[in-house]
């Protein structure tokens, strides 16, 4: 302390700034969302099915400045058959409850669905879907509770030529309308922090019930039940997480050839579905990495996943004048098992897979969070394959 020097007297080096007072014309008018509702960006997008070929187009979304209206649009075109895919989601959040409107026209592929003693072939169908959902959120400080009530109308039609070959004697896929009412409950206590790579320290649970009924316009009558549990177990090291997931779905009533549940494939390119999303009651596709898309089908389905997630680098750097800001690089190692079946369950029928993923979190156009994925998966049982794919997750 004896060597310390006293501080010099303070001198204000900056002049006092004064502003000339001006008068501004002001006025009031009813709020209109239209001036700020137009989209501000678009991202190249793609899709593929065997019958429609490769499709290319764009993905975009927008919302008004008061965040009462929001929408997301995907539009794709395939020159092979002049096929057009689209998805449209609109959410009105001006007054509780929230309303969600959905419309889409896409393809769905079922591996080896057409099968008889002379061979097997994938089946591709066109799915036109329209739905309206009322969402009642009950948000608390530590947890969130959401109750949803909705109606869905889905029309199925064949894109694959039937019969697939002369004298075909195998199953004939169902065509017609699936119309249903649905009810679900969502609970969430997981958290995200500034440098999180995943939800942490909590759980997400959704249970749902769906009723397909002729009085609602359906050609088939069916009951569906689902439960999807995600548990996030923290490690002592920062932002390292073990995901423990259990999904189960069942159905009763009239069955169609495509069945109530399909299992297989990856939530890869152009997907708004991530491993952290619980499956809603109207989702029939359950992803099992390392196997062909919709390879296994049945009245009942189950899936279990263990996934260890770990951070690699916090980049926190932009690309000059480019509209990308790189957030975090992280990885995951997983093992999972599941199946879809009719009748009695046998543990020996479970389809297992292992793999790893490299993921890059980034922001696009200053505010759109995206995750790029480089994934490796290996199916360990019959119909399993070794797959490498590059995918993209983006929030709906």
Structure notes:
The protein has strands at 43-49, 53-63, 69-78, 83-92, 98-116, 119-139, 144-158, 176-188, 202-212, 222-234, 241-253, 261-263, 285-286, 296-298, 300-318, 324-341, 351-364, 368-379, 386-393. It has a 16-stranded antiparallel beta sheet, with no helix packed on it. The protein has a three-stranded mixed beta sheet with strand order 13-12-14, with no helix packed on it. It is mainly β and 396 residues long.
In percent terms, what proportion of residues is strand? over 45%
Mean pLDDT: 90
Could you say which structural class the secondary elements and strand pairing correspond to? Answer: mainly beta
Number of strands: 19
Summarize the structure.
By secondary structure, the protein is mainly beta. 0% of the residues lie in helices and 56% in strands.
Which terms would index this structure?
396 residues; mainly beta; 16-stranded antiparallel sheet; three-stranded mixed sheet
Topology, element by element:
Elements lengths: L42 E7 L3 E11 L5 E10 L4 E10 L5 E19 L2 E21 L4 E15 L17 E13 L13 E11 L9 E13 L6 E13 L7 E3 L21 E2 L9 E3 L1 E19 L5 E18 L9 E14 L3 E12 L6 E8 L3
Parallel strand pairs: 12-13
Antiparallel strand pairs: 1-2, 2-3, 3-4, 4-5, 5-6, 6-7, 7-8, 8-9, 9-10, 10-11, 11-15, 12-14, 15-16, 16-17, 17-18, 18-19
